[in-house]
Write a structure and sequence with these properties.
The protein has nine helices and six strands. The protein is mainly alpha-helical. Helix 3 packs across helix 9 and helix 7 packs antiparallel against helix 9. The chain is globular, with a radius of gyration of 18 Å. This is Cytochrome c domain-containing protein.
């Protein structure tokens, strides 16, 4: 973890944090409709349109993959660079300002059914800039929170959930169904425990404020394909159809 720094160092770091906050990339899904047409969606894609026209496990997963590999999701899942897990920002997935890495990220765990911060508290973490709602000006920090998952604040997933440029539909599907790779907050089940997997993944994509944020990312950011409501529905269509994984082409 980070070394102890002097009071002067803390002051300088916070000053840098305040500057960097203006460079970054919520939960408000009332405008969404389960019957939204592709033509009405701000960021429609062929995979979303195919799912809309024929919702089945195959088209549903193709749409899920479209969302998962979109910059709104990929940026937060991060990359490994210089030995550190770090997020990226923007549609071009550029390095996060202020050299933010897992070393100054919130560490979360589940205790008594609630998400809590664990480990050391550092001068700079995601919560230092990313609050409960988006900033109103383009380029300033986004934020997300809701009452569905109280206390769930902006943070990075574990490195096992990185969605790299080489991610294929087959690999993502099998990663999701592998309980060693699909979470670090709670057991989400997998191929050998589909009952838990269905419960946890449907809850995750339906209620997690960071997932829902992808369709309400604030000014100047391209939303994820489709709508949040259709994304959550597609997850159920895929799981209820047996969660089939595509084969490598």
């Amino acid at each position: 973890m980070m070394r102890m720094i002097s009071a002067l160092g803390v002051s300088a770091l916070f000053a840098l944090m305040l500057i960097g906050c203006s460079l970054h990339e919520n939960d408000d899904s009332n405008h969404e409709s389960l019957t939204a047409n592709a033509s009405q969606v701000a960021n429609s894609t062929p995979a979303f349109e195919a799912y809309q026209q024929d919702p089945n496990p195959t088209t549903a997963f193709n749409y899920l993959f479209d969302v998962a590999t979109h910059p709104r999701c990929v940026n937060c899942h991060g990359v490994i660079e210089d030995g550190a897990h770090r997020p990226t920002v923007g549609d071009n997935k550029t390095p996060h300002p202020m050299n933010i890495t897992s070393l100054n990220n919130l560490k979360m765990a589940v205790q008594d059914g609630k998400f809590v911060q664990v480990g050391e508290t550092h001068p700079v973490n995601c919560r230092g800039c990313h609050q409960d709602e988006n900033a109103r000006e383009p380029g300033r920090p986004p934020g997300a929170a809701n009452d569905l998952m109280p206390g769930f604040v902006w943070h990075m997933p574990p490195p096992t959930m990185i969605i790299g440029n080489d991610m294929t539909p087959s690999k993502l599907c099998n990663n999701w169904l592998n309980p060693r790779l699909n979470s670090f907050l709670a057991q989400r089940g997998g191929r050998d425990d589909m009952k838990t997997f269905k419960k946890e993944f449907e809850h995750h994509v339906s209620d997690d404020p960071l997932v829902r944020w992808a369709w309400n990312p604030g000014p100047g950011r391209t939303p994820a394909p489709g709508t949040h409501a259709q994304f959550a529905k597609a997850m159920s269509v895929w799981i209820n159809g047996g969660a089939p994984c595509p084969t490598e082409s």
